[in-house]
Design goal:
Radius of gyration of chain A: 18 Å
Order of helices and strands of chain B: HHEHEEHEHEHEEEHEHEHHHHHH
Number of helices of chain B: 14
Shape of chain A: globular
Number of helices of chain A: 7
Largest sheet of chain A: 7 strands, mixed
CATH class of the domain at 36-44 and 77-232 in chain A: Alpha Beta
Helix content of chain A: 25-40%
Structural class of chain A: alpha/beta
CATH superfamily of the domain at 36-44 and 77-232 in chain A: P-loop containing nucleotide triphosphate hydrolases
Helix content of chain B: 40-55%
Oligomer: heterodimer
């Protein structure tokens, strides 16, 4: 059955600190299937962001393996990691982290330009995505000229522009009021359905988590709950 | 290879913080301008120095064979030297010592017997004449031309007759037919007469004891001197006879370039510190670029390019500024005092294209190298830590 999984995490452990050891992740096992829309929840300091960073290849685990489409990303060279981030992953952070020297359109084009796509081609794809997130009329604005919600929509367009197989959101609505937060959630949901990409969101918002297909709860670096529509995926 | 997006990001960073960019370019530009300006002055000064000194001395001096006192077959040798490519003047000279006496004054002098036309082809002596004429020494047997300082010392003028004597020489009465001023210390000691007058005085047959040669390119003097050497006569170029000239010019040129090069280094350090600030400021963006798939190499390239572009712009601005200033100042004539600067009366500025190209390349490379440290700091950021957790 393993060829059905897009991500297989085995015995993943991340320990911080030289003197006092902090086990941010402690023997985590998770399987994720293509197209899933799931939430990782837990109290702050539980290790949920650390887990997301491992999946996003932004950090290296102390031990354990992560197979992405069957390839162990923990063993990759720096170059391969960069390439994999560019081709397979899209990131949405709590703060949009757009490049302030570039306008919305250029920000969305950037992952394509890094990939080596031609400018004209990149522009076309970026414009389509900006339309999809409802920002066609704001493409030449810089981040300072856009509202928080608008910036987050640009960030979402940017995360999706390379057509990644996995979209990673670290508190993607954490910085927005509940109304805007809902509309961003709906947008992500819609994109998930339309593009059939895997969405992994870290959130402390239990209400939002409850709306996703699957909830993985982490406490003290261990998975304490893993349920799909309220039904446990496996016994913990 | 540099990707298009790396250049795109580097250029945007520079245009976004316009004020820092302008100041960085200006700092490098001013330093480069100073170097270009000073180099132009140095080159002009050197050229003038050569014109006033080296161009007025023999390029090559030929001596008698090692065990002989005189060059006997000098007519043949003179012809042979003339046939060498690049030789534009050859003058056989008979030089000796004499004591000149006029009324109650006397002075030991160096007396040279020359052929006026030949000697002029080497030393342009006719340019230095202030009274009378060199030609008269060949028209009148027993006549002499004196340096202005020597004439003053003996208190003689044109038309006066000097008594010349020396042990083993035939005493003679020499009529002063001309006075020259070469602006060198030779004016105090050198008396010039015709070859036959000198041969009579020194009581020698048809011989000389040196041949001096002028070549059209002073840098070829060494090679031509070696060819004459090969004919069996010891020859030495002006570089061998006057090593101190080369030494002085080289030393001044080098220390000048080192000091000004250091100024550019300092200006480039300004760029390094600006770049460090930018890297700090842009930590999150760098993290985000890494998350989007920019490799560490790309991050490095972006910041090295920024430094390089600033350096290149500064260098080009500086060359234009320095060259303009030098050309402007070069069109004026400054009186700096004849005696103070070996007869140099103006400061000529010479802007050479090769200097400009070297300075631009040097500055560009220096800034590329200077950019490596802050750029490598940027590229070593860990994505997670760069993006931060808020």
């Amino acid at each position: 059955m393993s060829d059905e999984k897009i991500i297989e995490i085995r015995n993943l452990t991340r320990v911080y600190g030289d003197g006092v050891e902090i086990r941010a992740l402690d023997g985590v096992d998770i399987d994720i299937e293509p197209g899933e829309f799931l939430a990782i929840v837990g109290p702050s300091g539980s290790g949920k962001s650390t887990l997301l960073h491992q999946i996003g290849i932004l950090d290296t685990p102390t031990s354990g393996t992560i197979l992405l489409k069957g390839v162990d990303i923990t063993k990759m060279s720096d170059r391969e990691r960069s390439k994999t981030r560019n081709r397979e992953l899209g990131f949405i952070f709590q703060y949009h982290h757009l490049l302030p020297d570039f306008n919305a359109l250029e920000n969305v084009m950037m992952p394509l330009l890094i990939k080596g796509v031609k400018r004209s081609e990149a522009k076309k794809i970026a414009l389509d995505l900006l339309e999809e997130v409802g920002l066609s009329d704001r493409i030449h604005h810089r981040t300072t000229q856009l509202s928080g919600g608008e910036n987050q929509r640009v960030a979402i367009a940017r995360a999706l522009v390379n057509n990644p197989s996995i979209v990673i959101g670290d508190e993607p609505t954490g910085n927005l009021d509940s109304k805007k937060s809902d509309s961003i959630y709906e947008l992500l949901r819609r994109l998930n359905r339309e593009h059939n990409q895997t969405f992994i969101l870290v959130t402390h918002d239990e209400q939002m988590a409850a709306k996703t297909d699957r909830v993985i709860r982490i406490v003290d670096g261990k998975v304490v709950e893993d349920s799909r529509d309220g039904v446990p995926v496996r016994e913990i | 290879m540099i990707s298009v997006y790396e250049l795109f990001i580097a250029l945007r960073h520079l245009t976004s913080r316009r004020r820092q960019t302008i100041f960085s370019v200006l700092a490098v530009g001013l330093a480069v301008a100073l170097l270009v300006w000073s180099q132009a002055m140095m080159v002009g000064f050197t050229d003038e120095m050569y014109a006033k000194t080296v161009d007025r001395m023999a390029s090559v001096t030929v001596e008698p064979k090692p065990d002989e006192d005189y060059i006997h077959l000098y007519h043949k040798l003179t012809e042979d030297i003339w046939s060498i490519d690049g030789v534009v003047g050859v003058s056989p000279v008979l030089t000796g010592q004499a004591t000149f006496e006029y009324k109650d004054r006397n002075k030991n002098v160096v007396m040279q017997g020359i052929q006026v036309a030949a000697h002029d082809s080497v030393l342009h002596i006719n340019d230095d004449i202030v009274k009378g004429s060199f030609r008269d020494i060949e028209a009148t047997q027993g006549s002499v031309v004196l340096g202005d300082a020597l004439a003053e010392k003996l208190d003689v003028d044109i038309g006066d007759t000097i008594d010349a004597a020396f042990p083993e020489a035939n005493p003679a009465a020499l009529k002063v037919v001309g006075i020259y001023d070469s602006g060198t210390p030779l004016d105090k000691t050198l008396a010039i007469t015709s070859q036959s007058t000198a041969q009579d005085f020194f009581d020698v047959a048809n011989v000389v004891n040196s041949i001096i040669v002028r070549v059209d390119d002073r840098e070829q003097a060494q090679a031509i001197s070696e060819r004459i050497d090969a004919m069996g006569y010891p020859a030495s170029s002006w570089k061998e006879t006057n090593p101190e000239i080369i030494q002085t010019l080289k030393l001044e040129g080098t220390s000048n370039a080192i000091i000004l090069g250091l100024i550019i280094v300092i200006a480039s350090f300004g760029i390094v510190s600006t770049l460090f600030m930018v890297v700090m400021e842009k930590t999150k963006e760098i993290g985000m670029l890494m998350a989007m798939g920019a490799s560490r190499r790309s991050i490095m390239t972006i910041f090295v390019m920024e430094s390089g572009i600033l350096g290149l712009l500064g260098a080009i601005l500086g060359v234009m500024l320095g060259a303009t200033l030098a050309i402007q100042m070069g069109s004026y004539t400054y009186e700096v005092g004849e005696e103070a600067m070996a007869g140099i009366t103006t400061i000529p500025f010479v802007v050479r294209l090769q200097d400009a190209v070297i300075i631009v390349m040097f500055t560009f490379l220096l800034n590329l190298i200077a950019g490596i440290y802050p750029a490598s700091r940027a590229s070593k950021l860990k994505p997670v830590e760069a993006i931060g957790r808020e």
